[in-house]
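Technical note accompanying the year-one report. For the benefit of new consortium partners, we illustrate the data format agreed upon in the data management plan: each record pairs a sequence with a structure-token string. No post-processing was applied to the example shown here.
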Amino acid sequence: ISRWLCSRSVFWPLLLLSATAVTYVQMIREERHYHENTIDQSSIKEGVDQINSGLCFYIKGGRVILANSRMNALCHAIAGHALQDAEAFWKTLSGGEVQPGVKRLAFGLYPCFRLPNGTVWSFAREELEGFIQLTAADTTQQQAMTDELRDKNLELAALNLRLRKHGENVDELARSR
């Protein structure tokens, strides 16, 4: 084939090269179209990783079936290691030892933590059919509002106490007059 192509004019090899290039471009387009329009394991993982909340599905015993990058980052921040055993991570969340700089805000079924970067994360665990779902939600704004409300309530309680003392003083002053 090479000898035959060499004996011909330059037109035929260029035509063959162009046809091959067009075929490759068409194959690449079709492959890209296929990957953009089909759902497979990697596209599910990619979609789950784009969620801002932490998400983990596991089976009894702690074997992780699916976890997004946010949940893995939270596991690193709170427990100090990668999310490999979800049951152990839940035990850490429920009352175990956490990393230095992490502050536990709530215990029980819905543990809540303030991380060193200032964000607040609340966790929940739910048993599904054969799987266990562990979720984490960013509750930084809600916690800030709760803290602000608590501070205002303390200020109001102090003001209320001062007003009562003032009222007693006014009563005593009126009686003495």
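Partners are asked to follow this layout when depositing records. The mean pLDDT is 89.
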